[in-house]
Amino acid sequence: MDREWGSKPGSGGAASAQNEAIDRRERLRRLALETIDLAKDPYFMRNHLGSYECKLCLTLHNNEGNYLAHTQGKRHQTNLAKRAAREAKEAPAQPQPHKRKVSVRKTVKIGRPGYRVTKQFDGETKQRSLLFQIEYPEIEDNAKPRHRFMSSYEQRVQPFEKRYQYLLFAAEPYEIISFKVPSTEIDKSTPKFFSHWDPDSKMFTLQLYFKTKPPETNKPQPPPTANGTELHHLFLDLYCHPPPMVNGPRPMPPGGAPPAPPPPPVGNNTMVNFTPGTQMGRPPTMPPPPQGFQGQTDAGPRVLRPPPPPSMG
Predict the structure, then answer these.
(1) How far from the centroid of its chain's Cα atoms is residue 214's Cα?
(2) How far apart are the C-alpha atoms of 6 and 12, rounded to whole Å?
(3) What pLDDT, on a 0 to 100 scale, did the predictor assign at position 210?
(4) DSSP assignments along 249-267, one per residue
(5) 58, 56, 57, 63: which is closest to 29 by C-alpha?
(6) Strand pairing report for 203-210 and 127-135
């Protein structure tokens, strides 16, 4: 009989301790392959001989399966615990941040409260306002409703939209309700922003005013550019209102006093005896008067007289 005692007829015989160890390591290797990524293992290393090493336990392995089976063994697990304890002991003690414990009340919500929203407009200040009236008939005793503003980027219910913000109202045991309002700066002055809770009628009132945008400052007009339209207007202005002549009479100043005459030429000035028309070969405007006529004076206008008739005697 070539089979060992204790096995069933037709079977390969009872497994030996060596075969059981081989089978156990194979099962551990398949399990480790499904749960462990060798690329993230800091102790896994492949040497130049093509075999694998464990840098933590300094062991040599023929294949990846053998290394994975080693990582599930007692020796590797013990070394991991020792390494973690040594690192925790050598690490500097850092103060733990003080976390304030906030106990969240777990109450049964009874639904949403009734509300009324009124839009208002102030004709004097040109401001728009909203009046919220929230009714809490079943509010808890000695409780007061609360409100707060929430940015559009803080909530996770609707898509982000920077043009709007949310106004929230909360009171136990009612659900929290919110209103989507424009994201404009709110006037927090005392007479315009106020909230009031009436415990008798169980109504919470809140009024807010939005600030108006400041008017834009008067910017200086840019100089006219040389385009067709402005040139056309410029030509019309020159045609309808021609500029004064250079040599003509000067306009009166705003004060009413006549302008002072120009000073007489002093010194050797080449432009003193300038006569219009004598330059560039052009004849003068008026010919000079003949010399030796009677009635010619040095001052005043020249008077031309005919010569006396010749004596016949």
Answers:
(1) 19
(2) 11
(3) 92
(4) PPPPPTTSPPPPPPPPP-S
(5) 63
(6) antiparallel
CA distance 265 to 272: 7
Its pTM stands at 0.39
Per-residue pLDDT reduced to its tens digit, 12-68: 566 778 888 888 878 877 877 777 778 888 899 999 888 999 999 999 998 887 888
Higher pLDDT, 308 or 49: 49
Q: Number of C-alpha atoms within 13 angstroms, CB side, residue 107?
A: 14
**How far is it, in rounded angstroms, from Cα 36 to Cα 38?**
6
Q: Which tokens in the block code for residue 89?
A: 């002991």
Q: Residue 192 has what pLDDT?
A: 86
CATH 1.10.20 for the 114-210 domain, yes or no: no
DSSP string, 136-168: -TTPPTT---EEEEEETTT-SSS---TTEEEEE
- Paired with 114 in beta bridges are 135
**How big, in percent rounded to 5, are the helix, strand and coil portions of the chain?**
20, 20, 60
Extents of the domains making up the chain: 18-85, 114-210
Q: Which of 218, 140, 212 is nearest to 182 (CA)?
A: 212
Distance of alpha carbon 175 from alpha carbon 109, whole angstroms: 6
Asked if pLDDT for residue 122 goes beyond 70, the answer is: yes
What tokens were used for 233? Answer: 């207007």
